[in-house]
């Protein structure tokens, strides 16, 4: 038994029997509320109890992540103790409607095994545990909890597999293969574009980044298109573009001084898009249509790499001056966003998104554990960023909100007659004021979304999501941000 709770004093009546041993133990250890402890409790399954307290949950500044953090610690301790069949008990808490599910997701995060390890070991008997049990007071609650935790976790697993794996295992062609296998016989349609001529024609900014990697067959870029269409009349259409840089060397403005390590994680935006589709495939929400594009490209250095100063004409017909090849994320997404914009006019209530580990500045600004969301005019006027932030709080997938301002547009205006738009300055985002906001303005300008503002004939709500901070630590395992917030906002809110 792994018990995750704020305080054993307030355990519900069904768990009364766990109180006495904890009371007894607390008489010799004041640290019970802070450290994870293992107690011998005769009569319990396995005769032992792991107690992982959340500590006091301060409603002024704490949030439901206290429960997932405690579950991670509890399960890790259980693994150390050699438990093969942990039963997670996290009784409900009056301030957090979904704290039990959040704890279950924390436990599952701790039990994740990287795809490289799974593929090398093959035998399920070598997984971290045989089974994870979840305790609930009534059986029907249990089925719902298991279904929900399994569906959400399967999406995060896909996200971690793609986002967390090394640049060869998850090179673009192999990501395409993984995604095709994953969605075979599901409601998600997959289309993979690999023809370099077609990529150059349809997505010139993406093709510029891909030019160097394209000389090495196993590193060649892919655009992976996904589509899900739920039953019943469609009420909302989500259009998602994910950044999938399988490795970011920085290009010829190369990442120097030891900052290149970890850059296989630059594909976590596209990985999140795939993960969200996996949740759609499992939960099959009605009235919802989702269209996704994963921009899988390697930003390599070599004789044919794109360089600063080049002029590239975007799909929307804007002449873009490359300022820094390390600003490749916006390049690979912008023409896919433009294509979404073209399609959006035929969709029911479309909402467009880019999801990307885009800027170091996002981490500088908000710290490592927060996604940042920024609305364009139409999305801002309906309060979409605020809605995402609220949805994120339910399962502990946290957001900060930023605003796109006039300075951000000004920053990307062409500096001479040669170009309409400047892609980037010559500094890293961390050394640039408003370094995480300006790329959103670039994406709006170079995709032509600026023609779909609040005052236009056809306003299109668009939000840019920067997950550079929240995607997870390296070394370490990707978090799966922001798919829990997305699932809460667009699937769970309708289903229950
Ligand atoms: C981010 O969250 C993790 C997990 O809760 C925690 O271990 C880490 O200390 C946090 N980082 C910062 C800088 O707060
Ligand atoms: C909370 C909120 O108003 N969300 C909005 C997000 O954008 C779509 C499309 O414009 C609206 O329909 C939602 O109401
Ligand atoms: Zn880069």
Which labels suit this protein?
about 500 residues, alpha/beta, Leucine Aminopeptidase, subunit E, domain 1, Aminopeptidase, 2 domains, eight-stranded mixed beta sheet, five-stranded mixed beta sheet, 16 helices, binds zinc ion
Summarize the structure in words.
The protein has 496 residues and is of the alpha/beta class. The chain has two domains: 2-137, 3-Layer(aba) Sandwich (Leucine Aminopeptidase, subunit E, domain 1); 166-494, 3-Layer(aba) Sandwich (Aminopeptidase). It has helices at residues 19-26, 65-80, 99-111, 115-121, 139-164, 172-183, 196-202, 204-213, 268-283, 328-344, 360-366, 377-381, 384-395, 406-412, 438-447, 483-495, and strands spanning 2-5, 37-40, 48-53, 87-89, 133-134, 189-193, 222-229, 236-248, 288-299, 311-313, 319-321, 350-356, 371-375, 399-403, 421-422, 462-466. The longest helix has 26 residues, at 139-164. It is elongated. The two termini are 29 Å apart. The structure holds 2-acetamido-2-deoxy-beta-D-glucopyranose (NAG) (2 copies) and zinc ion. Zinc ion binds at residues 248, 250, 299, 326, 328-329.
């Amino acid at each position: 038994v792994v018990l995750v709770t704020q305080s054993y004093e307030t355990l519900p009546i069904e768990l009364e029997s766990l109180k006495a041993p904890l009371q007894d133990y607390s008489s010799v250890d004041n640290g019970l509320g802070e450290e994870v402890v293992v107690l011998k409790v005769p009569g319990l399954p396995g005769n032992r109890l792991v107690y992982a307290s959340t500590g006091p949950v301060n409603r002024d500044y704490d949030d439901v992540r206290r429960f997932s953090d405690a579950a991670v610690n509890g399960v890790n301790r259980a693994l150390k103790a050699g438990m093969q069949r942990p039963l997670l008990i996290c009784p409900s808490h009056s301030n957090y409607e979904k704290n039990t599910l959040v704890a279950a997701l924390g436990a599952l995060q701790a039990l994740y095994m990287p795809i490289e390890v799974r593929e090398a070991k093959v035998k399920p008997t070598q997984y971290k545990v045989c089974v994870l049990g979840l305790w609930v007071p009534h059986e029907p609650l249990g089925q719902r909890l298991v279904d929900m935790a399994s569906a959400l976790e399967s999406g995060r697993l896909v996200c971690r597999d793609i986002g967390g794996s090394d640049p060869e295992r998850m090179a673009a062609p192999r990501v395409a293969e993984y995604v095709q296998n994953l969605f075979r016989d599901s409601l998600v349609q997959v289309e993979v574009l690999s023809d370099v001529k077609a990529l150059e024609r349809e997505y010139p900014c993406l093709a510029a980044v891909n030019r160097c990697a394209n000389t090495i067959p196993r590193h060649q870029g892919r655009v992976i298109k996904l589509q899900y269409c739920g039953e019943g009349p469609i009420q909302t259409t989500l259009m998602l573009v994910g950044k999938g840089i399988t490795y970011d060397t920085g290009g010829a403005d190369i990442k120097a001084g030891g900052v290149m390590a970890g850059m296989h994680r630059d594909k976590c935006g596209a990985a999140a898009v795939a993960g969200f589709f996996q949740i759609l495939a499992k939960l099959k929400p009605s009235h919802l249509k989702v269209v996704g594009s994963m921009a899988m490209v390697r930003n390599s250095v070599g004789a044919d790499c794109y360089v600063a100063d080049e002029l590239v004409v975007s799909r929307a017909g804007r002449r873009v001056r490359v300022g820094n090849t390390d600003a490749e994320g916006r390049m690979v997404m912008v023409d896919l966003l433009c294509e979404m914009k073209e399609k959006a006019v035929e969709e029911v209530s479309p909402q467009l998104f880019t999801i990307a580990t885009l800027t170091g500045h996002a981490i500088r600004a908000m710290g490592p554990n927060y996604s940042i969301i920024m609305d364009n005019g139409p999305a801002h006027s309906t309060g979409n960023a605020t809605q995402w932030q609220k949805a994120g709080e339910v399962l502990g997938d946290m957001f900060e909100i930023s605003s796109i301002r006039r300075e951000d547009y000004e920053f990307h205006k062409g500096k001479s007659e040669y170009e309409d738009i400047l892609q980037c300055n010559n500094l890293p985002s961390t050394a640039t004021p408003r370094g995480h906001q300006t790329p959103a303005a670039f994406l709006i300008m170079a995709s032509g979304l600026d023609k779909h503002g609040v005052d236009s004939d056809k306003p299109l709500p668009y939000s840019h999501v920067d997950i550079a901070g929240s995607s997870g630590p390296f070394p370490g395992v990707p978090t799966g941000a922001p798919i829990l917030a997305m699932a809460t906002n667009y699937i769970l809110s309708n289903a229950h």
